[in-house]
Amino acid sequence: xxxxxxxxxxxxxxxxxxxxxxxxxxxxxxxxxxxxxxxxxxxxxxxxxxxxxxxxxxxxxxxxxxxxxxxxxxxxxxxxx
Amino acid sequence: xxxxxxxxxxxxxxxxxxxxxxxxxxxxxxxxxxxxxxxxxxxxxxxxxxxxxxxxxxxxxxxxxxxxxxxxxxxxxxxxxxxxxxxxxxxxxxxxxxxxxxxxxxxxxxxxxxxxxxxxxxxxxxxxxxxxxxxxxxxxxxxxxxxxxxxxxxxxxxxxxxxxxxxxxxxxxxxxxxxxxxxxxxxxxxxxxxxxxxxxxxxxxxxxxxxxxxxxxxxxxxxxxxxxxxxxxxxxxxxxxxxxxxxxxxxxxxxxxxxxxxxxxxxxxxxxxxxxxxxxxxxxxxxxxxxxxxxxxxxxxxxxxxxxxxxxxxxxxxxxxxxxxxxxxxxxxxxxxxxxxxxxxxxxxxxxxxxxxxxxxxxxxxxxxxxxxxxxxxxxxxxxxxxxxxxxxxxxxxxxxxxxxxxxx
Lengths: 81, 409
Fold this sequence. Notes:
The complex is a heterodimer. Chain A is mainly alpha-helical. Chain A is built from 3 helices and no strands. Helices cover 49% and strands 0% of the residues of chain A. Chain A is globular. Chain B has 2 domains: 13-47 and 295-408, Alpha-Beta Complex (Aspartate Aminotransferase, domain 1); 59-293, Type I PLP-dependent aspartate aminotransferase-like (Major domain) (Aspartate Aminotransferase, domain 2). The radius of gyration of chain B is 22 Å and the shape is globular. Helix content of chain B is 42%, strand content 16%. Chain B is built from 17 helices and 14 strands. By secondary structure, chain B is an alpha/beta fold. Chain A binds chain B through residues 38-40, 43, 47, 54-60, and chain B through 129, 134, 145, 150-153, 155, 165, 168-169, 356-357, 361-362.
């Protein structure tokens, strides 16, 4: 089973194309506030991540996902079932 | 920092709209003249953004039924059906809508919004899952939230994505509600219902179809997409509204499952609201009879839809891919859409201006909804007004969508 430490580098790779040049992604990077993603881009990122990890992230959980760390922990939780 | 400070950005956005002349989201109809005409800003205006698909709002049978009910039963019910009791007309309307669908169970609600809130929140609760199309109407989102089920969105009209998400749910797919719409309100496209039914059966899920924009519009008898697709018996529940093709207000749910009847006892939007007033019930019932007795209204609607769609296409607009009563012209920017919307209004044409976040894929739309009551002359006038606007004259088509040539070919 994939753990948070396995998930994190994969998330960095997936988010890189959505990041401005020179910006360094960290666990505490805020997806909307720091990456400047609009609602459409957030949906695109989520669709990509859902397919990458073969999961569905419930809309109910989205308000609690602010940082890359939050997203990684959510993925870990969903993979555990 | 007060609670009211959060409204400041909205105030600024509203003020900038006002500077440009008129606020498209707070427009007043000075005087309504007919299903297709009104006085707006002092001039006679053709209405092509009302969802009045069959043009029944001024039908003499509906008006007569409403007036008689008003005189006979009074102005309102002053309470909920559970607390105050139902008027016999509420029960008769439920029988009428159930009879129209050939279904044994029906519940009516004061609005279409509440029908979705009431049915969806009752069907799926904590521990259950709801799979909704990404382009779903706000009432579907809100109904899902009210019930407390886990909500998962699938890609708009993408059956492969829906199936993938059902597979991911494993055994939980049997406690999953799938919600789709007959015709989607923004671009006018339809759900691929036959394929969705197959997937629903394969995974043992439950299916609700919202026929708000397809009731009276699709199917041999006007029952909507499920009828047109021939899958009515495979759909677990249909929800809809009386406020579009039936020209009234209110909403309903129908089902073949006997358990559906118990939604009355679990649905907060049914229990804790005043029931529809007698005149509204009466006009709705009359309208249900009219759509059964007059299939020619539907034929006229489709003739008008084809005429407007073809005319806008030939004028150089990029439109939604499916011909139907909802015809949305895609405009490259918000600013251009607003100025075109205003110019149309000044030329006596009222359409809906739709901009993000209310639209799919961040689109800016000039959305038309055609009526059976539009005359050929009115449709020509609408096309003529559109054809003089900058998108038509400069051929500024939207880059990411079906181009006119692709549709013609």
